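URGENT: need a sanity check before tomorrow's submission.

F., can you look over the Ion transporter record below? I want to be sure the sequence and structure line up before it goes out.
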Amino acid sequence: MDASPAPTPPVPPPGRFALFRRRLDFLYHADHPSAVRFQGWVAIVDLVIIAFFVMAPVLQEKRYFLWLDYSLAALLALDFGARALAAPNLKVWARRPVIWVDALILMTLLLPSLFFNLGFLRILRLWTLSRKDVLWRSLRRRGWQKWEEAGRAMINLLTCLFLATGFIYTAFVREGSGIEGYIDALYFTVATMTTTGFGDVTLPGPGGKLTSVVVMIVGISLFVRLAQTVFRPYKVFFPCPACALERHEPDAVHCKACGHILAIPDDGNA
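Structure tokens as predicted:
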């Protein structure tokens, strides 16, 4: 007589911690309307925090500055921990460059006296925000995909602008340097990036000249990239009928993923 297979033991229900992680995963990564609303509010809070980072050099002498600094540190630490719990694979999540940048920003907030000279790196939060899909999802739904690349290029330009301004303010502001405040640092950065070069504000010494060269090269590259993205996109959005790959070169005849023949309109709009 054949032995009947042993009954499969019942799977125990997930515990509260597992359910909590599933909920966080849903809120941070799902495309459900409630999750999208949550992600939108997180993005709005991020924009407020970024505005504080931009204004930090002006506000740092105020008595309430450290209170705001530590409050934002607690808020970002809470968001950082929640994203870690929401990650399906913590090791893969921790290897992402965006996470390293966010960790560095958090350290400058938690230890402002120790990392004061690196405070200008906080503006990189704008770049990490641009990596979130929630900013671009509504453009895709409205068929405005071509503006996503332009938006990313603009954010990269602004990030570089304020990053350079913060570095110049931190490294060169002193009496007799020609850079006496944050506005002077911002003015010099814009004039250098655009190669206007009025010459009324300059950075002293060899270090100042090398900094100016770097800012000019990076600025020109980003401005050219932004103009190219707006007026002549490097890639256009045209879904392949066979494999659904969306981004192709404007003059592509075949899909580079599956080889399917494409029929991209001359103006590059799908």
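My own read: The chain has a mean pLDDT of 80. The first helix runs from residue 16 to 29. If you see anything odd, call me.
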